[in-house]
Write a sequence for this structure.
């Protein structure tokens, strides 16, 4: 998986929304929607998207943003933004490290589901240098001309000098219809090859202030920008009406969501002939002396426990019922194959994972040193946060004696 940084820009004032907290104006990202700040809504469940997350906020709001990010379960660097969105993106880029890909996302698009993130990441992985989620335009669109008029009396009053003519604006006159089939509305997250995005910002210099999104700066370099389907739920909360729509959606979600938990356990003995695989990672001799895990597949007990937890939550049996125990096509198969099959099975019934927690029991490999990596790999696999913990069982039992590895997983899934 390529190294990706996600920049969440949240440093706008939100003048068009005009939110207040305790009677004082508050930047939009810190205004509450259904009792939770816009920034927290934007960050919830986003951890899997990138290896590094940078949140850009109005100067003075860094500490509050760090608390919000922690509550949302996202490990983020928080930096102060600038006067324009482009300035804020630039501040985020400076903190994004040397990731190969960068995704820039508006906190104001706080209800964006996982799909656009997934599509943008997939397009970058496939080699695109710039990717933007877009929606078709649904209204009839026309250009307009400004209609001006010279009214001597009003001109005189306006100019304070009798008889002097001055133009004043009467209104707008409709011009030509623009073919909406050729138009698209731009959303975020917008994804880029990091070097190209940095080059675009350098080339734009101070002129970046006039840009309303990042893709147009990249396009100005002559680089191709790929469009992928956006999502209606990724709308930007800009006005009061948008805020009401967001509140209504959140209320509906709170009222309608069905939640279920499930549990899964798997054990594999050491003694396999294939690679040493566990928790979606390959392990080397140093971290894991001796043979890999025995089994018909690759023996990844963590993935298998997750599969059982997902299936148990949805009431769909267990891994044996899903993929069999000795199907020839699954000889040596990686754990990801079974996780995907489980996601498909629960998805067919309308379920999606909310989060998964796994405990690994065994003498080796030690989970701690590669916990972050394992969590990222599994979270990307599931499209939901996965946490991984490890214990040695103090030498007790078969796994404590170093005979194999056991994993216990719990899953929370939602529907509706
Ligand atoms: N100086 C700025 C301006 C905007 N943004 C971010 O860019 C995204 C899109 O901007 P929008 O929501 O339209 O911005 P605001 O500037 O907050 O709103 P308004 O124009 O109504 O003041 C938002 O997540 C906003 O926080 C930013 O990080 N820094
Ligand atoms: C980046 C953006 O969300 C794409 O639609 C939009 O351009 C932000 O613009 P704004 O002027 O900050 O509202």
């Amino acid at each position: 998986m390529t190294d990706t940084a996600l920049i969440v820009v949240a440093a706008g004032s939100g003048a068009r929304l005009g939110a207040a907290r305790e009677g004082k104006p508050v930047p939009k990202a810190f205004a509450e929607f259904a009792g939770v700040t816009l920034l927290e809504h934007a960050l919830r469940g986003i951890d899997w998207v990138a290896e590094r997350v940078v949140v850009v906020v109005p100067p003075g709001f860094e500490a509050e943003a760090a608390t919000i990010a922690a509550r949302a379960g996202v490990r983020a660097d928080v930096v102060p933004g600038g006067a324009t969105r482009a300035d804020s993106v630039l501040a985020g880029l400076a903190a994004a490290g040397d990731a190969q890909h960068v995704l820039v996302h508006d906190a104001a698009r706080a209800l964006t589901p996982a799909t656009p993130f997934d599509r943008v990441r997939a397009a970058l992985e496939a080699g695109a240098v710039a990717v933007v989620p877009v929606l078709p335009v649904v209204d009839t669109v026309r250009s307009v001309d400004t209609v001006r008029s010279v009214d001597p009396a009003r001109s005189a009053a306006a100019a304070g000098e009798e008889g002097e003519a001055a133009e004043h604006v009467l209104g707008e006159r409709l011009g030509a219809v623009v073919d909406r089939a050729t138009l698209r509305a731009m959303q975020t997250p917008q994804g880029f090859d990091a070097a190209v995005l940095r080059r675009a910002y350098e080339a734009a210099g101070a002129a970046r202030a006039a840009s309303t999104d990042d893709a147009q700066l990249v396009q100005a370099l002559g680089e191709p920008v790929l469009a992928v389907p956006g999502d209606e739920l990724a709308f930007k909360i800009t006005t009061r009406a948008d805020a009401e729509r967001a509140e209504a959606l959140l209320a509906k979600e709170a009222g309608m969501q069905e939640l279920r938990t499930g549990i899964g356990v798997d054990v594999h003995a050491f003694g396999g002939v294939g690679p040493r695989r566990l928790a979606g990672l390959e392990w080397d001799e140093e971290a894991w002396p001796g043979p890999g895990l025995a089994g018909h597949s690759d023996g990844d007990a963590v993935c298998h426990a997750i599969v059982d937890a997902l299936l148990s939550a949805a009431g769909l049996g267990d891994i044996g019922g899903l993929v069999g125990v000795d199907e020839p096509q699954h000889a040596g198969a990686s754990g990801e194959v079974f996780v995907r099959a489980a996601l498909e099975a629960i998805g067919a019934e309308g379920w999606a994972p909310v989060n998964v927690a796994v405990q690994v029991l065994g003498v080796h490999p030690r989970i701690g040193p590669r916990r972050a990596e394992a969590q990222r790999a599994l979270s990307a696999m599931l499209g939901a946060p996965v946490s991984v913990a490890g214990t040695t069982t103090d030498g007790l039992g078969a796994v404590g004696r170093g005979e194999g590895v056991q994993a216990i997983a719990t899953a929370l899934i939602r529907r509706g």
Q: What stands out?
A: The CA atoms of residues 133 and 187 lie 5 Å apart.
